[in-house]
């Protein structure tokens, strides 16, 4: 016994015990905070007052109302996806492949939807273009009824164009201009170069963007509530089943049905998405005539004017007494927002900081375990970590509400449940980003460390982690902004003490308090900018890790 537990033996087995313990903890975390809530929602959809039942599913099949909202969800998602892809594609071409003047005008316009909460943009849309809107009634004397599916499509398209732009641009920047130059040298004109060279190479990126946007549209419940009028979707119906009637069985059933098209599309997304990265390839620009520039630029100019108008409306509404009626300057809404929203501001900042730090390091740690590891179940772990990407936010929020409201996992009403929910929702991005960076790091670097006697954990901490700095920074920025705007997955989990700014914006929007809601939105914009600048400072000359 004395020989077995001598100091030398302990020194050898201690890193192994620590390493195995780390693997076990990593799997336990995935089981408890991803699989358990998902399983709970499935179980609840079959559980009624008398035990196991299929009543909710029978009701869904027999009631034409539910088939109608399923059809509504699919129709809106199709239109929003097509329009967003078209606009994102146009912006990518204009910004990276043409010599358009005033490109910054387009760049800022396509980025504005990221920092403007969708709910307040929808409300600004109503105040600008509604029956008594500043533009429709104030300037044109029209009184249109804008509530309905068309307005939902318009607002979702504005919101998702940025997503399409990012994905398509990433693919476009990776296409070498040498292919296009070769086609030109063979006598092709600019349209033929685009049709025969550029467009076919962009198809995988367009498909990936389309599938991602379709899933986001299916899960969106805020936009239909604000500008949809009596138009309902699966996501809004699920929301009202919880908030209005607390019918967890029907809400779970609707969430499960909503999950199926998302999972099918996620499978296709995984198949076509190849982990595009920003590459510094040689770019060549199209030589366009003035007529071609006008045709190409018209949709982008229209979108840009609308995006600026909505953001400007939010900004003006925060400083004026009554947007559209009385433009007298006032700071009353700011004072009211600060007075009522102090706790929400503090919570938002705390949750965003906590989530961004934890997600960044957890994501790259999982990347290292799975990408470099050679153990049984590696692919299953990969699938489980990526799963939250395909699950609608309301589904995961409902899962956390049902799974963590009893001992020994009682988390309901705490800040921890919100941070954990935000972490799990953003973990796939950090994980995939970590994989992309790891694929560019030679394994020989780690092998040298291991051959010198360092354990795998020490190699990860001392060698790999510093090389993963880009993945950590990008993950922190993405998670920080996404957490500030997050609402769908945490709306069922908040209490008066854990409320965040996005919820304050949503409540103000529902209550038609545009001024106060606009002020909360401005706070979110300011926090996002401060967070991005603060995280980017980590990339300075000073050693940060």
From TrEMBL:
The keyword Iron-sulfur does not apply. GO terms for biological process: transmembrane transport. It is found in: Cell membrane; Membrane. The keyword Nucleotidyltransferase does not apply. PROSITE patterns: ABC_TM1. Residues 70-269, 345-537 form the ABC transmembrane type-1 domain. InterPro entries: MetI-like, MetI-like_sf. Keywords: Membrane, Transmembrane, Transmembrane helix, Transport. The chain crosses the membrane at residues 21-47, 74-96, 108-129, 149-176, 197-215, 250-270, 291-317, 349-371, 383-401, 471-494, 514-536. GO terms for cellular component: plasma membrane. It is a multi-pass membrane protein. It holds the Pfam family BPD_transp_1. PANTHER family: POLYGALACTURONAN_RHAMNOGALACTURONAN TRANSPORT SYSTEM PERMEASE PROTEIN YTEP, PROTEIN LPLB. Belongs to the binding-protein-dependent transport system permease family. This is 2-aminoethylphosphonate transport system permease protein PhnU.
